[in-house]
Amino acid sequence: MDTKQRTKRLSELLGQLLEKTHDKNMTLGIFIKGVGSQAQALFSLIFSVPFLVLVSLPGISTFFGLIILFFGIRLAIGKEAWIPKRLQTVSIGGPRFYKIFSAVCKLVTWMEKLTRPRWAWVFSWPFSNTLQGILLAINGLCLALPLPPGTNLPPAVAAATLSMGILEKDGLWVLLGYFFFITNAAFFLALFWFGKHILGFLLLSS
Question: Which of 31, 40, 122, 184 could form a disulfide with 171 if both were Cys (CB 3.0 to 4.6 A apart)?
Answer without folding.
Answer: 122
